[in-house]
Amino acid sequence: MFLSRFRVNTARPGARRLLSSPQAMHAAVMSSFPHILPSDSPQPEAPRVLWRLDQRARAEVLLYVVSPDRPDLTHLVEQAGWPAVADRENPGWQTRPYAPLLDRLAAGDRWAFRLTANPVHTVRRKEGEPRKLTAHLTPVHQMGWLLDEERQKRLGFRVCEKPAGRRLLPEGTTHHKHPHPGDRYELTIRDTRSLAFDKSRGPGARRDKPVTVVTVTFEGRLEVTDPATMRRTLTQGIGRARAYGCGLLTLAPATQPGHRAP
């Protein structure tokens, strides 16, 4: 497995086209692997290509890619990077083996993390109708999605709770006794976006309804509870919409509360 980081040149038309379309970005990322077609479906239990966009400043957008094979991002440099500063020693991106981090994971380890995900649930609007997939829209429900005990068990970690002295509310609840996970847990929401894009391919293709995806970027601290399961989470992703930049969890050493993941 490999972890790659690519800085997008947001001033270029090619970059703006990719940033405006998760489908186009997914195709560009998958084109970094010569033996994979963008339309190929990954095996259910196998490591897969995951990607995520992090915007740290107005003109600083970073693309992270986790992949079973080493990518060649030359085409991305040519259309959305800085070709003038790329050379043999600095091709325009950084790739490093992921195995050293995966191998060192142990139960009880604590890490800072960042995750962009698509928190959804199913609802039935009328009696007798089938349940329909719907996005969580409020921060409390979005945090609740990630904090679900069964979900965290399946992912191999748990989000750390804040020490009592750092909480503002008693028992992590409001004065109306409503849960307030942002006060109880080491968990914040950095960004929420609603994406809508056309999934049709080519001018002659049938035009379906636009695809809409609500994405949420979480940051916080977690504790590894099951290292083997955690390795699977890091290489297979979390939740739905993984083809559209969701599901990639990254870790960084967390020696102090609030340390940010890459």
UniProtKB/TrEMBL annotation:
It comes from the Bacteria. InterPro entries: CRISPR-assoc_prot_Cse3. Coiled coil: none annotated. It holds the Pfam family CRISPR_assoc. This is Putative transcriptional regulator. It comes from Streptomyces ambofaciens (strain ATCC 23877 / 3486 / DSM 40053 / JCM 4204 / NBRC 12836 / NRRL B-2516). The lineage of its organism: Bacteria, Bacillati, Actinomycetota, Actinomycetes, Kitasatosporales.
